[in-house]
Amino acid sequence: MKVSYLKLDLQYFAADEKTEEATPKKREDTRKKGQVPKSQDVNTGFLLILVFGALHLFGGQMKEAMTSMLSKSFNEYIHWTVSEEHVFTLFLEMTIEITKVLAPVMGIAMVAGIFSNFIQVGVMFTGEPLKFDLKKLDPIQGAKKIFSARALVELVKSLLKISMISVITFAIIWINKGPLMMTSQKSVEAALAFFGRITILMGLASGLALLCLSVLDYVYQRYDHEKNIRMSKKDVKDEHKNMEGDPLIKSKIKEKQRQMSASRMMSEVPGADVVITNPTHYAIAIKYDEAKSDAPIVVAKGVDFVAQKIKEVAKANEIVMVENRSLARALYQQSDIEQPIDEQFYKAVAEVLAYVYRLEKKA
């Protein structure tokens, strides 16, 4: 008895073990919830490269705009009297000028964020991650996340990013240590230009390094995502049942449909012209109406029990039954109910109908 219980327990755990790949429906459901493999390093890398690239392209214009604002402030605004109208005009003009300076950089930053997300997850709109969930406030689950393998990987990844960016920054400063020490001998404009170039170089190099690191991070994120959405054999079966319906219920529905079809079919037998039999296993009821069809129509067919029922109804309604073994079998296999017979059976069925009409004429 203990052995049997042990086997049942092992089977139960085996059924619940996540060993199966996620089905397309499971993937679609997790995507709707916003659960997709994505690396934040891709976003950060693209953001750094495009933003510092924009600073390199528009830096001169931004410097001129800022210099113009400062010059106007000390040459014009400083002589204004403090009034509500002058303060409003001052803030409005300064806001417009600052917007002109920052708009290109902010626009490129938005494009970088949208593009980096698009290349990873495609087009996706979902509000599921924004919904309030009390489970997120569970301290036990939070502690498990802190001391999980994923948290360890994130820690190693963060240390690696900090080390990489620190090395890149130090290397750029070390390479340019000569010009850096000589900035005190240069004009303010030349010194600012030098520091601007060094800063842009650091940003571009750091962004490129993060993009290289993001390739490894994205591979890991995909692996971790696939692992988390794995399904057990029981999950796959349950999903199949939900999509296709319970097999027991489906069989009952099909049985009910067969019963309704058989009942409807039996109601057509009294109007048939002839029933062709095997004589015991097959029965096919044929009706010929020139007004409805150019060829005879199969109004009912069946084997074994259904064939017996067709013959009983035909006998009760005095429908002629003709025995033709090969024709009955062929009609059953190659004809559909409420459809005209195939052209290959025209001659054989015509002979049977002619025989039936002769009998009716004699009667």
Automatic annotation (TrEMBL):
Ranges annotated as biased composition (Basic and acidic residues): 19-32
Transmembrane segments: 42-59, 101-126, 155-175, 195-220
SUPFAM superfamilies: EscU C-terminal domain-like
Compartmental location: Cell membrane
One Pfam family matching this protein: Bac_export_2
InterPro entries found in the cross-reference section: FlhB (IPR006136), T3SS_substrate_exporter (IPR006135), T3SS_substrate_exporter_C (IPR029025)
NCBIfam families, per database record: flhB
Similarity comment: Belongs to the type III secretion exporter family.
PANTHER family cross-referenced by the UniProt entry: FLAGELLAR BIOSYNTHETIC PROTEIN FLHB
Protein name: Flagellar biosynthetic protein FlhB
The species this protein was found in: Halobacillus naozhouensis
